[in-house]
Amino acid sequence: MNRTAVDSSNIASIGYDSESQTLEIEFLNGSVYQYFDVPEHVFEGIMNADSHGIYLNSTIKGSYRYSRV
Fold first, then answer.
1. In Å, how far are 7, 30, 38, 54 from 18, measured between CA atoms?
2. How many whole angstroms separate alpha carbon 14 and alpha carbon 30?
3. pLDDT value at position 32?
4. What pLDDT, on a 0 to 100 scale, did the predictor assign at position 11?
5. What distance lies between CA 13 and its chain's CA centroid?
6. Per-residue pLDDT, 21
7. DSSP 8-state secondary structure symbol assigned to residue 46
C-alpha cells in the first residue's frame, strides 16, 4: 500500500486502500498497523486533521479492528 508522509510527532506516514477500506499507519518507531473497515471519510479526516495523532486516538483507535503488520 502506498503511504503519504505526514508531519507528526508520532506518525511517519498514512495510507488507504478504498477497495478494502483499509487504513495503514506507519509510526516513527517503524511499526505499521492496519485498521479495517474504515470509511473513506475517516481517512480524509485524519489526513486533514490539525493533529494526526489526536485524530487517530479520538476517532480510530478503539473503533476499528486492527492488526500489526
1. 23, 23, 9, 23
2. 13
3. 98
4. 98
5. 8
6. 98
7. H
Q: Which residue type is seen at 14? A: I
Which amino acid is residue 1, in one-letter code?
Answer: M
Ranges of H-type helices in 1-69: 40-48, 52-55
- For the beta sheet containing 66-68, the strands, ordered from the edge strand earlier in sequence to the opposite edge, are 3-5, 11-17, 22-27, 32-35, 66-68
CA distances from 62 to 30, 40, 44 (A): 21, 17, 18
How would you write the pLDDT of the chain (69 residues) with one tens digit per residue?
A: 899 999 999 999 999 999 999 999 999 999 999 999 999 999 999 999 999 999 999 999 999 999 999
Side chain identity at residue 66, one-letter code: Y
Q: Report the C-alpha gap between 62 and 56 in whole angstroms.
A: 10
